[in-house]
């Protein structure tokens, strides 16, 4: 008898956790085969992405090979080029050539992730950096180090100011953490440059909203705002970018900020792969699914994580946030739902309340919200590191991270420009030819 084919598209937190759960509860059956298709053969531990940007951890410390987690799952590294949800097929391109293969599923599970959304602002998109991947962190880090090198020799005042100013758009989790990390990186690195004073470094955080971190407890958000200002990060709220070029941005209230470094963290959207799918989506483009994570009106096809709009029945049907803690628990529930359907049983809705949130502000300071408890300062930062250290897979990776943290405390962060000329030159060339 032919095995039932369960195909997972996407190897992030949710896709990997789903495969691992299926290995435990379903693969022991002889009639099931699980396949995971992913463009990358590693898991990126995204909570530490800003620490990589800031030079506190090496790139290799925040990734783990997917194959190290998968013992019974077939793993395929390939770029997905087509998905037919009605036929339940996935077409992917092999990594080293243009050959394609198509897989047929009995149960197709989409965990496609998300990308940055510029809301149609094409000029800003041409100029801005993002922080969604390891390549993004490497690219931005190298750009900032190159900016310091050039500023050290620059004699024109305006050009020098643009090189030493970083504008971060979006005062949510990513923007706030990135602003703190960039401030720490550049202030520390500036000490090695004879012609740059640390007080010349500017980091400007911009958001259309009237407050930062709008989804956390108001008292913690106010504390975070005070800490950012105390550490010299400039805040521009209730404003947006009206105009941008490679040397400056103009805000909606008329302020012109000279900058060669613009980081965009003001919005996300589901992966572009979701646009090709013949199924219902919400206004953001996320796949509309039932509380069980089954795609509406298409039996045998499921979606979870950032690409899906999963109604939270505990919160009046509002969609779950795209967080790692939600993604992992969605995956565990979805694995059991798929197995239930294979057994001829009814799938159950996903029900989960957030356990809490951490936001790192830099300089060993954070805010934390865990159930009804609130923490701030060094204690919150220490709790953040402890919680995420526990979550890091494999003792070897934990040891690498602890080693990186220890070296940072003893000798300071690394401010060397890593060898990524393809990324850096490619971005510079892209900006100069399109602007």
Features:
single chain; 435 residues; alpha/beta; 2 domains; five-stranded parallel β-sheet; 24 strands; disordered C terminus
SSE layout and pairing:
Elements: E1 4-9, H1 13-25, E2 32-38, E3 42-44, H2 49-53, E4 63-65, E5 74-77, E6 79-84, E7 89-93, E8 100-104, E9 107-110, E10 114-116, H3 122-127, H4 134-153, H5 157-163, E11 165-169, H6 173-190, E12 202-207, H7 218-230, E13 234-237, E14 241-245, E15 248-251, E16 256-258, E17 261-264, E18 268-270, E19 287-288, E20 301-303, E21 308-309, H8 324-342, E22 356-362, E23 365-370, E24 373-377, H9 378-391, H10 395-411, H11 421-434
Parallel strand pairs: 1-2, 1-9, 2-5, 9-20, 11-12, 11-17, 12-13, 19-21
Antiparallel strand pairs: 3-4, 6-7, 7-8, 10-18, 14-15, 15-16, 22-23, 23-24
Helix pairs in contact: 1-8, 4-5
Summarize the structure.
With 435 residues, this protein is an alpha/beta fold. Helix content is 34%, strand content 24%.
Mind explaining what this structure looks like?
This protein has 435 residues and is of the alpha/beta class. It has two domains: 4-39 and 78-116 and 269-342, FAD/NAD(P)-binding domain (3-Layer(bba) Sandwich); 122-265 and 416-434, FAD/NAD(P)-binding domain (3-Layer(bba) Sandwich), CATH 3.50.50.100. It contains eleven helices and 24 strands. It has helices at 13-25, 49-53, 122-127, 134-153, 157-163, 173-190, 218-230, 324-342, 378-391, 395-411, 421-434; strands at 4-9, 32-38, 42-44, 63-65, 74-77, 79-84, 89-93, 100-104, 107-110, 114-116, 165-169, 202-207, 234-237, 241-245, 248-251, 256-258, 261-264, 268-270, 287-288, 301-303, 308-309, 356-362, 365-370, 373-377. The strands form eight sheets. It has a five-stranded parallel beta sheet, covered by helices on one side. Strands 13-12-11-17 form a four-stranded parallel beta sheet. The chain is globular. The protein starts with a strand and ends with a helix. 40% of the residues are buried. The model is unreliable at 420-435 (pLDDT under 50).
